[in-house]
Amino acid sequence: MDMWGPYKSVAKTVFPDAEITTDKFHLVALMNKALDEIRKQEQNKLSQSHRKKFYMSRTLLKKRGEDLSDKDHQRLIKLFELSPPLEKAWELKEEFRDLLQIDGISEAKSALEKWYTRVSNAKLSPLYRVKDIIKRWQSQVLNYFKTKITNGFAEGINNKIKLIKRIGYGVPNIQNLRRRVFHSILSNK
Fold this sequence. Notes:
Radius of gyration: 20 Å
Distance between the termini: 26 Å
Order of helices and strands: HHHHHHHHHHH
Shape: globular
Strand content: under 5%
């Protein structure tokens, strides 16, 4: 699940014996949001000509390090020359993504503790907030390392339903919406 307290309360009430797992998608999204906040803070400190480079780098900063082309690397190097705090934030984002690949709870807990320390040393307030949220949800985050379960499939289906509704201008007839969803899911296998 995502990290929304009321949803957790309902889940605990309805499924008292279930172990709640925080979905890694929501953890990565939280990190990317903090990274973008830092990008905006750094962008506001620069001259107009450099600000455009920062604005144009929004999606580049969210890319996984291993997915970057040589051209992307060069663009990042130029950005990081203008803003060492942005470089530090990007490195911490990548470290966190790597941390999510760890197998085993004890290794993950140890890596999280080291990451918390690096975040504290970086002195970047948006990342402090991420660290605090992850600490509050740490037991649910660590549950992810037991099973590596995500709700990516369900999120994909929800996105597909939203797209079908948008394309169909709301699809007011629930039976037609249902048929379109089933057709879309079954025809993409």
